[in-house]
Amino acid sequence: MTSPASTSRIGVVVPSVNTVIEGWYPYFLPADVRLVVNRMLIAKTVTAESLREMDGYGIEAARTLATARPGVVIYGCTASSLVGGRDYDLRLMDELREATGVAALTTTESVLRALAHLGVGTVAVASPYTEELGQAEVDFLSNAGHPVLGHAHLGILGGFDLASPSAEEITRIARQAWHNADANADGLFVGCMNLNSHLVIESLEAELGVPVVTATQASLWAALRELGHSGIISGPGRLLRGLPSLDKN
Question: Which of 26, 44, 80, 219 could form a disulfide with 110 if both were Cys (CB 3.0 to 4.6 A apart)?
Answer without folding.
Answer: 219
